[in-house]
């Protein structure tokens, strides 16, 4: 929702000043998805708002639900017809839900293990489109009578947040504003592949929001193969940026590390990672999240089941704080690195170094009956 658009409509309609707060409260506190549900507003005004300043700048194209019910993935259609995916997750069996938002349609970074990277970049999302993914899932919880509330938001969906910094920053302001979405900064995390100017600016602008760095390899020759952005911002620059960030904010930083069998999961890779963590000056403030690679149409392999634990133990032996992250939503292609909404077009944006050869990703699943069983698991729930 764009509050400025709402204000314009109210002014044009000659509504009294108090109406704006009433309208915004109806959406932010009442978790509405359309103005038609806003019973506190006069009916003709609701109709006008729905036409001229709709609550959501996006609409559900389809929603998949994982077998265990703890992951819901939506393909959301934007005003220009583009699709992005956003995910609702329940990482713990309490009533707190996390929303994973996208910041771009596709991504220019081309990380070789990631389905979104296969799409290339189509466009940035607006602040409204980013914020509305959270509003969408809040309305979804309400309309599907699911217990609990959205208490965490992670910027780890499609796109590189710091490649769309201004809109990401505006959306963060909306999420953190107590008069709007009102999330606690401690429960919001932004992940970057390592755009150094973005890390620096983020430390100044949002020192209480969590930062995650998608590292995936701690030496340059290996990281360049997996994360092409490393050619612009190498591990030496990342260490310096993290040092400054830690000094400035005193906040914990999460290091995300996708384990790719035989590529970055060897003992020497654990040593390089341990060295990287210590070189940032505050190993007590860095926490490594290990993620076993989730299947995508890229040429990698997941490590054997027990391997992440062994890698974790090697890191612990080096004095590194580390967790193996449980993957939710793999059966609906909603886990880390699996989001994709169309076949790859010619690339635009940042150049990409040739990585391992890729095969065609699977085409979008077609709409079907509600809760129909899908071959990959998960229930299919078309919403519109
Ligand atoms: S991992 Fe993130 S930054 Fe890399 S290609 Fe995928 S979406 Fe982009």
Short description:
This protein is of the alpha/beta class. It contains ten helices and 14 strands.
Considering the chains and any ligands shown, give keywords for the structure.
384 residues; binds iron/sulfur cluster; alpha/beta; DNA polymerase, domain 1; two-stranded antiparallel ribbon; disordered C terminus; TIM Barrel; elongated
Q: How would you describe this structure to a colleague?
A:
The protein is α/β, with parallel strands linked by helices. The chain folds into 2 domains: 55 residues, DNA polymerase, domain 1; 325 residues, TIM Barrel. The chain is built from 10 helices and 14 strands. The strands form 2 sheets. Strands 12-11-10-9-8-7-4-3-2-1-14-13 form a 12-stranded mixed beta sheet, covered by helices on one side. Strands 5-6 form a two-stranded antiparallel sheet. Helix 1 crosses helix 3 and helix 4 crosses helix 5. The longest helix has 17 residues. It is elongated and about 65 Å long. 47% of the residues are buried. The C terminus is likely disordered. The site of iron/sulfur cluster has 13 residues, from loops.
